[in-house]
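Appendix B, record 7
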Amino acid sequence: MKKFLVICLALVMGTGICLAQKPAKKAHKQLTTTVFSTDLDCPNCAKKVETNVPALGKGIEDLQIDIKKREVTVVYDAAKNNDATILEGFRKLNVKASVKETQKQK
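Structure tokens (predicted):
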């Protein structure tokens, strides 16, 4: 009887160890920086974009607005977002924008 219980316990423990999986590695962020030319010309317009960053899509890491140059620099995770989605977000905020420059980071 003891042998039977030991064998059952060993099987249960062995099964548990076999089924335990290592957590999947998180995908490395594929950061991309894109500069957009916009029609932003005042601090209120810039504030509207800053307070509505989720409208630009997921994965936004950083957003810098230069009103004098009328440029918005967006750093985002390319696995979660792209330039087209961000442009659509600007459109939803009634901001005219176009891609000026895109740079992928390592």
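Remarks on this record: Strands lie at 31-38, 60-66, 71-77, 97-104. The longest helix spans residues 2-19.
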